[in-house]
Amino acid sequence: MTAAEESVVRPAVAADLDAVAEIYAHYVLHTVATFEESPPAVAAWDRRLDDLAARGLPFLVAEVSGEVVGYAYAAPWRPKPAYRHTVEDSVYLAPGRTGQGLGGALLRRLSAGCARAGVRQLIAVIADTGGDASVALHRRLGFTEAGRLTAVGYKHGRWIDTLLMQRTLGDPPDSGRHPDGGHR
Q1: Which residues lie closer than 8 Å to 104 by C-beta, 6 or more apart?
Q2: Phi, psi (degrees; rounded to nearest 5) at 82
Q3: 3-state DSSP call for residue 22?
Q4: pTM to 2 decimals?
Q5: CB 109 within 8 A of CB 9
């Protein structure tokens, strides 16, 4: 049985945020997977959880044997109103928990939650670190490459590109358009 088969993916609650903050801090301090340079405090995670809940967007955790070992959430892509049906995903796993199917379990549930929330486009912004685990995960779950931004981040003494990937989830309920592009 894999870790993904033994895991529980569920909505995050405030009690999970210490673990979420610890997982993310590892990536902030030791990798270029995120362009943050200082780990956010648990209070910042609490505000994010509340904000996403108010927007009806999913924030999930993966738990194995009662321990939070990963998380995923969807946040607004851009603040302008016309982007309201487009979100950006974030998926992070505790060190030592990659390659066990947990990222896929989180991203599948996140995608389903986004579709229920009326999201049309799910965007992934992936730092080009030379490894392809995140790209492969997103590709397996139906994302396609949408572009590259060259040398847009500078962290740990190096310039980093980002790869943009995108997945269409469907028309939001209030779009007024059929999938073929015609009006209702």
Answers
A1: 4, 137, 140, 141
A2: -65, -15
A3: helix
A4: 0.89
A5: yes
Structure tokens at 18: 């210490």
92 with 70: CB under 8 angstroms?
Answer: yes
Contact present, 138 and 165 (Cβ < 8 Å): yes
> Using one digit for the tens of pLDDT, what is the confidence trace for 105-163?
999 999 999 999 999 999 999 998 777 899 999 999 999 999 999 999 999 999 999 99
52, two tokens: 């996403």
| Helix, strand, or coil (residue 124) | strand
User: For 37-72, what is each residue's pLDDT tens digit?
Assistant: 999 999 999 999 999 999 999 999 999 999 999 999
Q: Both ends of the chain: CA-CA distance in Å?
A: 47
CA 37 vs CA 70, 148, 153, 155, 156: distances in Å: 20, 22, 11, 8, 9
For helices 42-55 and 17-30, angle between their N-to-C axes, nearest 10 degrees: 110
DSSP state of 48: H
